[in-house]
Design goal:
Strand order of the largest sheet: 6-5-4-3-7
Oligomer: single chain
Helix content: 25-40%
Largest sheet: 5 strands, mixed
Distance between the termini: 54 Å
Shape: globular
Structural class: alpha+beta
Number of strands: 7
């Protein structure tokens, strides 16, 4: 066997191990949120942390959202003001962005602040990706979790819940 064939075989073995490891990580079980939990979100109930979720943010996650299309996730205190079961993503909770300060900033700079910022699951049909979505921040400014996590959040977080988005 030549050195080139050996290198190719080792590379193939490494690739198979990486793919198998990512597949196992995607399905590795996580602790479930109790059925009766009601949360304030990250998910807190008063000062007690119920559960923490790792999320994907806007594709340009550094700095606060300032205008439509900047790929940033808003920073600040908002509320989850309504839910959208028929979203193009697996369920969605609307974040009350833009707030008065965001609108004032945008007007003073002659820009559109954007809107329709949500906490949501995966794009419909892509739920199988699971936690692999965490490899890169990919949303247009939303906060994304897996479909299973979104089911928990949807159940636990009532409309009107405050959400603090901070760097």
């Amino acid at each position: 066997m030549t050195d080139g064939h050996l290198v190719k075989k080792i590379g193939l073995v490494v690739l198979v191990l990486v793919i198998a490891g990512l597949g196992a990580w995607r399905f590795w079980p996580r602790s479930a949120l109790p059925q009766d939990a009601k949360a304030d979100l990250e998910l807190y109930r008063k000062n007690l942390l119920l559960k923490s979720y790792t999320v994907s943010l806007g594709r340009h996650p550094t700095g606060p959202k300032q205008q439509q299309g900047d790929g940033k996730t808003p920073e600040g205190e908002y509320s989850l003001d309504y839910r959208k079961a028929d979203s193009s993503f697996h369920r969605a909770l609307h974040i009350s962005y833009p707030g008065p300060a965001d609108i004032a900033f945008a007007r003073s700079h002659g820009i559109d602040p954007g809107g329709l910022v949500m906490v949501h699951g995966m794009k419909n049909g892509l739920g199988w990706i699971g936690r692999l979505h965490l490899v890169v921040d990919w949303t247009d400014g939303c906060v994304a979790v897996t479909d299973e996590e979104m089911d928990e959040i949807w159940r636990a977080v009532p409309d009107g819940t405050k959400i603090l988005l901070k760097p």
